[in-house]
Write a structure and sequence with these properties.
- By secondary structure, the protein is mostly beta strands.
- It has helices at 2-30, 44-51, and strands at residues 56-60, 65-69, 76-81, 86-91, 96-102, 107-118, 131-140, 146-152, 168-175, 181-188, 191-198, 203-204, 220-222, 229-233, 245-250, 253-262, 273-280, 284-298, 301-317, 322-326.
- The strands form five sheets. A six-stranded antiparallel beta sheet has the order 3-4-5-6-7-8, with no helix packed on it. It has a four-stranded antiparallel beta sheet with strand order 9-10-11-12, with no helix packed on it.
- A hairpin with a 5-residue loop joins strand 9 (168-175) and strand 10 (181-188).
- The protein is elongated, with a radius of gyration of 34 Å.
């Protein structure tokens, strides 16, 4: 009797377990599974496309220029054509201080303000604006990718006018014909430094040389095939650094510079001198050295004009590194 009762209890239990197991097995193996889609990682190109979707177009029919720029710039006004290749614009956004468009490469270089630092009280009578700013140089590739090239962050400052010695300005921006190098001036209070940066690496290739240039449009030259870099260096009199002379790179290696010609101490016995008539091709560089021997004097004062000068002409062969004086 006990066995019969026990069997009557367990038989339904076992049947329920079998049926439930069958249903679960059918749901797992028999029912069509819902495909779980893993979100695809976006490519850099897709990310840039999304971030620049609202960029505005600048177009100038006269100069045959067209490019896109960030919406935050509001609008651009063409201020000047610095060279055949470089155009300077003014942005309606006061945080964008200077915009340069390099036509051959399609690269846009721009100097922009960063974080603002208060250094003087609002009622300070000596200044209209009691702030200083971090400043940065950035470029925009034709692909619209933005890259930071140079930055100056003000980490420490004092609550007086001396703080403004920390603030710098980035200006006179130019690019090599192939768009691989950008050069510019960094100006500050009693300070001026020329930078020549390789865009791909962010390296200042003149950092370890005693080179200073005042005008990136007139002091830096490239051979037509972009294999040789030439710098007409000057002395920054206020800072006492820089070499007055010519630096020329190894062929095919712009970062390896050689001091080819240099003057001695400047203004010796009021004998001024300068380098001019620089001509460059793929094989050689020619330049002239002018030595001023007599200055005009009126009423016991120098007028700044000279009455006599001597001229010497030189030629430098790139591959042989041979410098010779031309009669």
């Amino acid at each position: 009797m006990t066995k019969l009762v026990f069997s009557k209890i367990w038989i339904p239990v076992i049947l329920i377990i079998l049926v439930a197991g069958g249903v679960l097995a059918w749901q797992y193996f028999g029912m069509p599974k819902e495909e779980v889609k893993v979100p695809e990682e976006k490519t850099q190109e897709e990310i840039v496309k999304n971030e620049t979707a609202d960029w505005q177009i600048y177009r100038n029919e006269e100069y045959k220029i067209e490019f896109k720029h960030p919406k935050e710039w509001i609008s651009l006004t063409l201020e000047s054509q610095k060279t055949d290749d470089v155009y300077i614009f003014k942005s309606a956004n006061e945080l964008i201080e200077e915009v340069y468009y390099h036509k051959p490469s399609g690269i846009i270089a721009f100097a922009t303000k960063g974080k603002r630092h208060r250094v003087l009280p609002k009622d300070e009578p000596r200044l209209k604006e009691p702030y200083v700013y971090d400043r940065f140089l950035k470029i925009i590739y034709p692909s619209k990718e933005i890259k930071n090239i140079y930055g100056n962050e003000i980490v420490q400052f004092r609550d007086d006018l001396a703080s403004f010695a920390h603030e710098i300005y980035i200006t006179r921006i130019n690019l090599s014909p192939n768009g691989r190098y950008v050069y510019f001036l960094v100006l500050g209070y009693e300070y001026a430094e020329g930078m020549l940066i390789e865009i791909a690496t962010g390296r200042n290739i003149i950092k370890n040389y005693d080179i200073w240039f005042n005008n990136p449009y007139e002091d830096i030259y490239w051979s037509p095939n972009n294999q040789v870099l030439v710098i007409n260096s000057e002395v920054y009199e206020f800072g006492g650094y820089g070499t007055e002379g010519i630096f020329i790179s190894d062929y095919g290696k712009p970062e390896r510079l050689n001091e080819v010609f240099a003057f001695g101490p400047i203004f010796e016995e009021r004998k001024d001198r300068y380098i001019s008539d620089i001509l460059i091709d793929n094989d050689k560089l020619s330049f002239s050295v002018f030595l001023i021997t007599e200055w005009e004097v009126k009423e016991g004062r120098y007028t700044g004009k000279y009455t006599s000068e001597e001229k010497e002409k030189y030629e430098y062969i790139f591959r042989t590194k041979d410098l010779r004086k031309i009669k």
